[in-house]
Amino acid sequence: MAFTHVFTFGPTFRAENSQSRRHLAEFYMVEAELSFTESLQDIMQVMEDLFKTVTSTVLSKCPRDVELFHKYIAPAQKVIISYSEAVEILKQAPQTFTFKPEWGCDLQTEHEKYLVKHCGEVPVFVINYPYDLKPFYMRDNEDGPQHTVAAVDLLVPGVGELCGGSLREERLPFLESRLQRLGLTDAYQWYLDLRKFGSVPHGGFGMGFERYLQYILGVDNIKDVIPFPRFSHSCLL
Questions:
Q1: Would you say residue 237 has pLDDT above 70?
Q2: Cβ atoms within 10 A of the Cβ of 156, count?
Q3: What is the dihedral of CA 34, 202, 184, 146, to 10 degrees?
Q4: What residues are paired with 205 via a beta bridge?
Q5: What is the mean pLDDT of residues 167-173?
Q6: Pairing mode, if any, of strands 26-35 and 124-130?
Q7: Which residues form the Aminoacyl-transfer RNA synthetases class-II family profile domain (predicted)?
Q8: Where are the alpha helices (DSSP H) in the chain?
């Protein structure tokens, strides 16, 4: 709490067997946390500022390296829609998706790319996801009848999800209730203690570095933006 804005940048590992053009088993992630915030807008603003600042720096310091890729840099506009609005847009789409869009289901890559296209090929913030779809630590919006949490994903052209974040649940009774329902109270007692003995409203997000490179360079496969790509079944013994 003494440091209201903190971040880390380093390797991240994923255990799931993802075989796609935007997944790696090891990748780099920028993770940021903000204290004393109760607004999802604050999280989105930091996401946007980070994205714009890094992109401006890259374009100003490495113009020759990115000259061929300028057409992939989206204009400054952005769109903010709720998860519920996103699902309605997808249901009314003229195309048929491999995964049928339904409220309560996660958005797939095909859905994310369509939403970006529908909104004019600009970055799109999707906010307020279903309560049962997200992890226990995301803040309950206490709404209804469609129960949601204060979560946000940033979708960008050519990639889909670039950033994901949320307000964190700092209210101990809400955390205790949800962990009990999930049967995780014993496993996460240490987490409850952190909130029990001192916490403040806070939130944060993560941005995949290789996906960011994919976006600004217009590279189709994430394995082409990292020197030594590590992915499922790539290490044969």
A1: no
A2: 25
A3: -120
A4: 32, 165
A5: 94
A6: unpaired
A7: 6-227
A8: 40-61, 63-66, 83-91, 109-118, 172-182, 189-196, 209-217
The pLDDT of 34-59, averaged and rounded, is 92
5-9+23-224 carries CATH number 3.30.930.10: yes
- 3-state SS, 175-208, equals HHHHHHHHCCCCCCHHHHHHHHCCCCCEEEEEEE
Beta strand 5-13 pairing with 26-35: antiparallel
* Secondary element (H or E) of residue 29: strand 26-35
The domain segmentation of the chain, as residue ranges, is 5-9+23-224
How many other C-beta atoms are found inside a 10 Å radius of the C-beta of residue 106? 11
Q: Is 40 helix (H, G, I), strand (E, B) or coil?
A: helix
For residue 25, what are the contacts with CB-CB under 8 A and spacing of at least 6?
13, 14, 15, 230, 231, 232, 234
Per-residue tokens: 13:
């590992």
Sign of CA dihedral 105, 18, 184, 138: negative
- pTM of the full predicted structure? 0.87
Structure-token pair, residue 204: 């944060």
**CA–CA separation, 67 and 53 (whole Å):** 18
The secondary structure of 215-231 as a DSSP string is HHHT-S-GGGSSSS-B-
